[in-house]
Write a structure and sequence with these properties.
The protein is α+β, with helices and mostly antiparallel strands. The protein is built from 3 helices and 5 strands; from the N terminus they run H-H-E-E-E-E-E-H. It has a 5-stranded antiparallel sheet, with helices on one face. Strand 2 and strand 3 (about 75-80) form a beta hairpin. The longest helix is centred in the first third of the chain and has 25 residues, at about 1-25. It is elongated.
Length: about 120
Amino acid sequence: METNKTVKKLKNFISATSKEFFTALLEDDPKEKKEQEIIFQKITRGKDNQNLVVLHVINEKEIRSFSGFILKVTKETILLKPLDEKSSLKLIQVKNIKKVSMLETVTEQKKRQLI
């Protein structure tokens, strides 16, 4: 009886450990997830305030920078209207954005200083 309980406890322990390992393996890195949340917040703020934004985007092949105004934001993508009149609208995946820079107006800077 005692050995059955011990074997059962061992099986449960191995099973729980395996589940935790595979869950951690499949989930995104918590640090990267936090960075993506911060980037998404900046993008949303840039759209709401109609700020000029510069995005540094990394995909499999290259690193590119895009500048313009954000027209639409979803959880996965953004629609960017470039400053260059000749360029077409850009659909950019949020997960590929590594840095967001914004040009704020003077009134927005004053609001932030008051907070």
